[in-house]
Amino acid sequence: MEKIKEGDYVLLYFDNRRKWLVKANKEKEFHTHKGMVPIRDIIDKSYGERIQSALGYDFWLLKPNSCDFLSIFRRMTQIIYPKDAGLIIVKLGMCPGKKVTEVGTDSGGRTTLMANLVKPDGHIYTYDMNEMFLNSAKKDIRKLKVDNYVTFKNLDAREGFDKKDVDAIVIDVADPWRVVPHAYESLKGGCSIASFSPTINQVEKTVTALKENDFIDMESIEILLRGIHVEEGKTRPLSRMISHTGYITFARKIFV
Amino acid sequence: MEKIKEGDYVLLYFDNRRKWLVKANKEKEFHTHKGMVPIRDIIDKSYGERIQSALGYDFWLLKPNSCDFLSIFRRMTQIIYPKDAGLIIVKLGMCPGKKVTEVGTDSGGRTTLMANLVKPDGHIYTYDMNEMFLNSAKKDIRKLKVDNYVTFKNLDAREGFDKKDVDAIVIDVADPWRVVPHAYESLKGGCSIASFSPTINQVEKTVTALKENDFIDMESIEILLRGIHVEEGKTRPLSRMISHTGYITFARKIFV
Amino acid sequence: MEKIKEGDYVLLYFDNRRKWLVKANKEKEFHTHKGMVPIRDIIDKSYGERIQSALGYDFWLLKPNSCDFLSIFRRMTQIIYPKDAGLIIVKLGMCPGKKVTEVGTDSGGRTTLMANLVKPDGHIYTYDMNEMFLNSAKKDIRKLKVDNYVTFKNLDAREGFDKKDVDAIVIDVADPWRVVPHAYESLKGGCSIASFSPTINQVEKTVTALKENDFIDMESIEILLRGIHVEEGKTRPLSRMISHTGYITFARKIFV
Amino acid sequence: MEKIKEGDYVLLYFDNRRKWLVKANKEKEFHTHKGMVPIRDIIDKSYGERIQSALGYDFWLLKPNSCDFLSIFRRMTQIIYPKDAGLIIVKLGMCPGKKVTEVGTDSGGRTTLMANLVKPDGHIYTYDMNEMFLNSAKKDIRKLKVDNYVTFKNLDAREGFDKKDVDAIVIDVADPWRVVPHAYESLKGGCSIASFSPTINQVEKTVTALKENDFIDMESIEILLRGIHVEEGKTRPLSRMISHTGYITFARKIFV
């Protein structure tokens, strides 16, 4: 059984809709509508065990996964969805040792997810024009202790980016087509790029730019995730779902 | 520029529907409907460059990603889809150092994907009752050089499995509900399990078993991936899609 | 130009989310957050024209369609969705002259839609066990002036129904499999039945009953309707959608 | 029991994928891979009964519905899908007595469906520039005996159309935005228009034209129909589906 130590993150679980990411801390209390939870008391408990609130309700101490960590990133801009991030990770072949450029740090959620996969020998180079976003992301990434694997650059990637020979590039900005020519310069031959955009018009322009800049093997897709209510004899899809986050376009660089 | 060396894998690309994973080899030729491609000549070329077939057609030398590697696994059983594998990876928090149990090796495609993410300090323990599947998977995984991070077990997981204290468990068998009690024993507290099943009846039984075996935070979902034909002024979703691969159920272990 | 007469229904439109079905009436006022609309003044205006509220806002006088009328039916039970009703209408070949049995009147929304299509020579025989629902539906259907084409029966259809030789049957109750044997008796040979159910377990049982009761050409489907935000240069699917209303099963009666 | 008479249409059913629309005829034989079916012998049988082929296989005599009739229309252009046609019918309030303009007769399938709903007092005015399509549609519609309710016009609707004061308009041409101004002139105030287009770029231009031509209450949607394999204990969505037919845009005319 894995003991919870001071500074560890814990997913405090009440029910499927009420769960919070908290940090084990000798002095902290966490206030919920079901009473105060004495965070200090979770130190030395094991993951999977329970703790009671002052009002006598059970809260469970779960081990946070990558998705749970995404929730701590300030949601100033768009949310990174696990369904989209997961496919990008697989299609771009992310794994320990890879060097990846990310254009559009945003909240830093995806940056962290990727840093955690390429460590310890890989690295993420992340660009954002918005200094406030970048600083906020930097702070959160430090908390999660993957900051050694990330280089932050407060630059406009549409004017080019310095890092060369990266294994993969992820673009998540409003005008990806302007970043494409620089992405070409930065990416290793034969390697993959992924661009995420909410509107179909952005996708059209991006694909045109990719074609003009010697990328091939283009593929544009969208992913829908549908929840199912599972209960013996009463199973049915949930009534509502997120029907759109964005389109993802994949392509690979060639030397013509 | 990264040179292709003897023994390296290359994705030989003709067009979006015709691409093959080949291994650079001093003596090999690869025969296509567009003429023979002299595989021996790709050694010392760079990824991203082209090679001509005997009939004068261009083929591009791309860097294979995790999805491309999935294609080499013999498709005796079900195919692993990147959309499903990607979400499982993110939701189970897979990353370097994790110990993961997989019940249902099948072709070994997902095993390889996971081994590549947990290396060098993590490990995959994979079980399959079918010795032929297991041997075939073993052979492919060795080719991709991640066999050091995988332990194969030709056992019936419904009778229990020996490895304890793993960080995550993936189940992909016909009767996951029979594996659930043993999965509980094997998994660390607070950690996550994912079960993949094609039919809704399997999902019902699995969720019931998870509830009875002290798992919480249950979530069942399905993922749809839809391709888009992108062409300026003529953009539209593709006419056909895969509308079902399977449902995925996630849950976490607690100590009651 | 078609003049609005006393007693006519009008769709009072403010914007896409704020529209109301009202009846032209010499004495009525309609109160909205944008001021009182003098309903009495719409008499003798034409459909398509505007009227101003007391606060000076424009409201448009639109011609209500079948979907708009659905909104007046009290939503005590489930809502009838145009996407589902439309397919049932086409698949069951509804048109003037057809005789149709409906098991599960519910709000009467679908009853009205169907009555409006089979009139003047066709007829709808509608059954509901719940007398309150039936009376409420009857009242609304009278308002829409299609009550001459509807016969209401406050009976438990699981115990059989008297009307024979109908051209089509629509079932929308919690246990359709109990109605299936009686539906067989009531339906003309070679003709179609449609059953609507929210859960997949209901569908399984219904299909089993249909097979056992000499129905063939079985087809079970679900329909998803996705809204698109259309704006030049910013077009994208809406972020949220209804992801499930119910499954529809179609089948046809044979004599074995 | 309804007897089949000479000249009646019958859906000859072998299994879910093999069914044909045939016309009862004293002299005809119908050849299938399961042997010749003596069509002449179905006269005086009842719908729902069976007939044997020369090789001893059972074929069932089903009553064709609107969807089955759609299949006889020559598929030179695009197919009309029941899911799309059904929603258009409901949203445009089609029912006996309505006058409807259709721009783009195509195969005539949708024309027939609509004619069958508005008869005997309503009427469909259908336009197509392609004389060959129009003649072919005319021939099929005559066979189905709804030609009295349809007026065919071999004209370019982009140059205006003569019929005024129709209750609804359906547009299904490559450049709907050019038809919109004339559609405005032709439609009654407050009434609805529906435009069907395969590409998102067509939808953008159409919505712009609708806004510029005094239409409001705009709604653009797409419908997905997903088949379910239903079998006790093995129920799951079908593996493949049609993922796109087209987008439908609805709007209503106002007087500004």
Characterization of this structure:
The structure is a homotetramer of 256-residue chains. Chain A is of the alpha/beta class and 256 residues long. Helix content of chain A is 24%, strand content 33%. Chain A contains 6 helices and 15 strands. Chain A has an 8-stranded mixed β-sheet, sandwiched between helices. In chain A, a hairpin with a 6-residue loop joins strand 12 (215-229) and strand 13. The first copy, chain A, is globular. Chains A and B meet through strand 1, strand 6, helix 2, helix 3 and strand 11 of A and strand 1, strand 6, helix 2, helix 3 and strand 11 of B. Strand 12 of chain C pairs antiparallel with strand 12 (215-229) of chain D, so a sheet runs across the interface.
Primary descriptors:
6 helices, 256 residues, alpha/beta, homotetramer
Summarize it.
Chain A has 256 residues and is of the alpha/beta class.
List the helices and strands and how they pair.
Four copies of one chain form a homotetramer.
Chain A: E1 9-15, E2 18-23, E3 30-32, E4 35-37, E5 50-52, E6 58-62, H1 66-70, H2 82-91, E7 99-103, H3 109-118, E8 123-127, H4 131-143, E9 150-153, E10 166-171, H5 176-186, E11 187-197, H6 200-212, E12 215-229, E13 236-237, E14 240-242, E15 247-253
Parallel strand pairs in A: 7-8, 7-10, 8-9, 10-11
Antiparallel strand pairs in A: 1-2, 1-6, 3-4, 5-6, 11-15, 12-13, 12-15
Helix pairs in contact in A: 5-6
